[in-house]
Design a protein that fits this description.
The structure is a homodimer of 236-residue chains.
Chain A: H1 6-15, H2 20-45, H3 50-63, H4 67-76, H5 81-101, H6 107-128, H7 134-143, H8 149-163, H9 165-192, H10 194-199, H11 211-231
Helix pairs in contact in A: 2-3, 2-4, 2-5, 2-6, 2-7, 5-9, 6-8, 6-9, 6-11, 8-9, 9-11
Protein name (chains A, B): tRNA-(MS[2]IO[6]A)-hydroxylase MiaE-like protein
Domain Ferritin-like (chains A, B): 21-199
InterPro entries (chains A, B): Ferritin-like, Ferritin_actino
Chain lengths: 236, 236
């Protein structure tokens, strides 16, 4: 783990994990893991067939994988546990809010909510951890790797969308609603956690978080969204 | 895995897994895993603090562990996949019904529902797989081992119950409601799956499932319930 000399560990910690922005980013990863677990577990509970239920349950369980390395790292660098807890809890609330604002009316809408909404949550995290290096960066990268969820959704949704024009129209509308709520959440999260935006290089140090400053990030999130809708044969 | 000779595997399968009752029992274990996952994930989503949420999320994820060995075994003995799927799905519905009938009004009632209701679901499974031997028995035993959930609930509930007489009275009443629904579910499940009751030696071959025949089993489930309530300082 450490290179042996206690001072080395201390210096590392001071350089990387001791940085409150890095710690905040890792708390976001932990919150993302908990939210992802809850989101996919809820989908699993509503799955109409056993195969989907098993797949989604297992995907949900795998979402928890980052918790151990994040907690181990935060403990190692001696982060204040109560502060970390509060941070994770507040990120979790921000992310859960998106799920609460986009309650699906059926299985198809649920798949869209997850593909588009949860997909955006992951993209947002990818944007915000981009400025990290070393072990925290590796932990984040591992946590945000593609889980195959997109392929799962596209496999199920695309054929249904291709066959039913009315369903396609309804889901295109729903996708726009979900991404709208998602971008709103993203902008709230960045505004409330300026340290992450600075760490990620989204906001230059000393600059206010504004719609203009966030515009390139929001643009990237929107493009990813359009790419996803495209895979379903839907217009973004 | 097998002892080498293909006939041996086939004989084993015929003796153990080929037995429809053993297959049914393993489907119950798989359904129990899915239900346990959903149950604890729902508890995690409603946990009032981060420590409980993390603990319950992780416990939920661990509930899925039996799925792989059960599915591997059922595939190995060449069980009809569609039949297994239908079996697991129908068991799942029976188990989920208990959760639906005991919707808690707050965190304390939720802890009781899980401790008492989910505890009874596990006890019922233990009763029903008792007649198995060999690998199916080992899979079931592993699946139904103590996960530490009871200790988690007692640690949280017992002090609150000891301090507030009104809460204790309310939760004692709620515990009775939950166990009543649980015993009802147990009796429905056994009546609908006579093969399990015969396998477990609860019902002698050729005998109808009746309240009288089930009475020793229900008695054991009730004793376990009383023991759990006792750990909380509540009267069953």
């Amino acid at each position: 783990m450490s290179t042996g000399h206690p001072d080395t560990l201390h210096t590392d910690a001071h350089k990387e994990g001791g940085d409150p922005a890095v710690c905040s980013a890792l708390s976001l990863i932990a919150a993302g893991a908990l939210s992802g677990f809850a989101w996919l577990a809820d989908d699993a509970a509503n799955a109409p067939d056993l195969t989907s239920r098993m797949l989604l349950s297992r995907m949900a369980a795998r979402e928890l994988a980052p918790l151990d390395p994040v907690q181990a790292y935060q403990r190692e660098i001696g982060m204040d546990e109560a502060a970390v807890e509060e941070q994770i809890w507040s990120y979790r609330a921000l992310l859960a809010d998106l799920e609460a604002r986009t309650v699906p009316r059926d299985w198809w809408e649920r798949l869209i909510s997850t593909y588009i909404g949860f997909g955006l949550v992951l993209d947002l995290q990818r944007e915000l951890v981009a400025g990290m290096s070393g072990r925290p960066a590796a932990i984040a990268q591992e946590a945000l790797a593609d889980s195959g969820l997109g392929d799962f959704v596209v496999e199920r949704l695309a054929p249904a969308v291709a066959q039913e024009q009315q369903l396609a129209a309804r889901l295109a509308l729903w996708g726009r609603r979900v991404v709208g709520e998602g971008l709103g959440m993203a902008s709230r999260l960045v505004s409330e956690h300026r340290e992450l935006a600075v760490l990620a290089g989204i906001v230059p140090e000393g600059t206010e978080v504004s719609a203009e400053v966030l515009s390139p990030t929001m643009g990237r999130l929107t493009s990813e969204h359009a790419r996803r809708m495209g895979r379903l044969g839907l217009t973004a």
